[in-house]
Structure formats: structure tokens, C-alpha cells
Amino acid sequence: MIEYVARSGPPEAMNCPAFICDTCRNQVVAEGIVTWATTIGRDGDRGPHQQTPVYVAHKGRCGRGLELWIEQHYPAADGWIDLWDDLEDFVCQLTHNLTNAFADDTEGTYHPHRLVHPKERR
Ligand SMILES: [Zn+2]
What highest taxon heads this organism's lineage (predicted)? Predict the structure, then answer.
């Protein structure tokens, strides 16, 4: 996930936002993935659909482990599909959305969703 990491040292102490791997808990630098699951894939269902938080992992073993965890907590039998994206593409799109409101996009439709944390799935 995106987390703040406390830093001490010159020029001053600060809290630094960073991508932290949800599998190994180390910082993800450069090559990584974001992964999440959604129920939006069902037959053009326009929602509101359900969606997990967005998780972060290193590519490779960490990413595969995280996807297995998501599949266990958000099973396909309940309509969940897992998705992923390269971290770099995620950051580019997020940066774009920082200054471009969905309401100003006259060609696209943005579907409402309900965020579902793992503890709500028990
Ligand atoms: Zn990792």
C-alpha cells in the first residue's frame, strides 16, 4: 500500500510517502505492481460494484503471493476477478487524475463502487 515512512536526519525529520510491498513489507522502487479485485466484470453490470483496496508488491514472487492472498479472500466463486497494473502506469494515471476531474471527462463513464476490506468478507 502507500504508506508514510518516518525519516530522521538532515535537513529535518519528515514523513515520506512510499510504496510498501504488501507481501515482504519492503519499499517497492521502480519495478512493482498494483493489484486489486473487483466484481465489475459481470455481464456489463454498471454497478455499484465492489472493489478491494489497491495493494502493492514487487514483481515476481511477491506479486504472485499477493494475488494468491487476494484470491483466497475475494473468491472467484463470489464474482471477484483480480486485476493488476505496472506500478509506473498506475503512477502516471494517478498523476493525471490529480488535476483532471472525472466530471470533466465528457466521453467516459465512471462507475460507482463500494470498497470492501478483507475483514468485511468473513
Ligand atoms: Zn516484496
Answer: Bacteria
Ligand 1 center from residue 27 Cα (angstroms)? 8
- The domain limits of the chain are 30-101+112-121
pTM higher than the cut 0.85: yes
Distance (angstroms) between ligand 1 centre and the Cα of 74 equals 21
Contacts of 9 (CB under 8 A, 6+ apart): none
For residue range 29-73, list pLDDT tens digits in order: 989 999 999 998 656 666 678 999 999 999 999 999 999 999 999
What is the Cα–Cα distance from 104 to 39, expressed in whole angstroms? 26
C-alpha cell recorded at residue 9: 536526519
Q: What is the 28 CA–ligand 1 centroid distance (Å)? A: 7
